Automatic annotation (TrEMBL):
InterPro entries hit by this protein: SP1917_dom_sf, UCP033199
Protein name: DUF2200 domain-containing protein
Superkingdom of origin: Bacteria
Pfam families found in the cross-reference section: DUF2200
Organism field: Leucobacter komagatae
């Protein structure tokens, strides 16, 4: 089964959409970067390389090669584009939507401390 066409979109082409959305709402590129680093484990230098115009690393590669996906991302809930995160079956699409949800929350003015979830204490 072929993957969704968004999987082949270059991350460097999508990144300006994230920053523009945040900046229109008074947030900063630095905050967008902070959330991406929190989610993926990339360093700022690695992210800077990935967002360089012309870099062809697509979303599938971006998430596959992420140094350490944050386990706290499982605490991200709700809907993105009318689709509940809990109902997304494709693992890559779920990662993409997690990032979308973080950027949505940032643009809605949510505090960074609330956006960056923490892992629940072990039972």
């Amino acid at each position: 089964m072929a993957g969704h066409r968004i999987f082949k979109l270059a991350f460097s082409e999508l990144y300006p959409n994230y920053t523009n959305k945040a900046e229109r709402k008074g947030r900063t590129k630095a905050e967008v970067d902070e959330l991406i680093l929190w989610l993926t484990g990339y360093s700022q230098a690695q992210l800077d390389e990935l967002i360089t115009p012309g870099n062809e690393v697509n979303l599938e590669e971006f998430f596959r090669d992420a140094p350490k996906m944050n386990p706290a991302r499982a605490a991200i809930t709700g809907s993105v584009c009318g689709v509940k995160l809990a109902e997304i079956e494709d693992p890559l699409m779920l990662e993409i939507r997690y990032l979308d949800k973080l950027i949505d929350e940032l643009a809605k003015g949510k505090a960074m401390e609330k956006i960056r979830r923490t892992l629940p204490a072990p039972a």
